[in-house]
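Long-time lurker, first post. I've been practising inverse folding by hand and with some scripts of my own, and I keep getting stuck on stretches where the structure tokens seem ambiguous. Below is the full token string for one chain I'm working on. Before anyone asks, I'm not after the true native sequence, just a reasonable design that respects the backbone. If someone could post their per-position residues I'd love to compare against what I wrote down in my notebook.
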């Protein structure tokens, strides 16, 4: 991967629907060269897929919440497996420390989030505490 590939990726992060022709103009290559480079990036697994970024509020999802969940160590794997299957949970990580999970959830409203916590998360075995996290920054894509 060279600097031109990095330029191509940065442009695709900003506009995944850009045509090969317009992308070629931006990186000063022929369209066929850009297409070949993108195909190589896909074949090598650098580009895994193309996707759309959806505005959750426009789809009726008004609460985006991050949580730290402290779990008794003996129940950590079980809780992680159950929570990972929940449709409202968009990401789940094991954090450093004995038994902490970091979770992001998307909910229609506060009532739906509270129901998730009370009916699905709190009853799980070994849940010690759940903290809501305030988000200061979020980025889509990655910096190359």
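-- Answer (accepted) --
I ran through it position by position. Result:
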């Amino acid at each position: 991967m060279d600097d031109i590939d990095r330029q191509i990726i940065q442009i695709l992060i900003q506009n995944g629907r850009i045509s090969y022709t317009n992308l070629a103009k931006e990186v000063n290559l022929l369209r066929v060269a850009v297409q070949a480079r993108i195909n190589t990036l896909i074949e090598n697994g650098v580009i895994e897929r193309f996707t759309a970024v959806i505005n959750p509020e426009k789809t009726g999802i008004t609460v985006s919440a991050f949580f730290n969940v402290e779990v008794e160590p003996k129940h950590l794997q079980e809780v992680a497996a159950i929570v990972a299957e929940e449709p409202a949970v968009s990401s789940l990580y094991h954090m450093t420390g004995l038994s902490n999970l970091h979770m992001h959830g998307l909910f229609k409203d506060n009532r739906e989030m509270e129901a998730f916590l009370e009916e699905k998360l709190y009853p799980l075995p070994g849940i010690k505490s759940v903290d809501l996290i305030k988000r200061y920054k979020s980025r889509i894509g990655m910096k190359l």
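A couple of notes from the structure itself: The mean pLDDT is 92. The CA atoms of residues 45 and 106 lie 28 Å apart. Happy to go over any region you disagree with.
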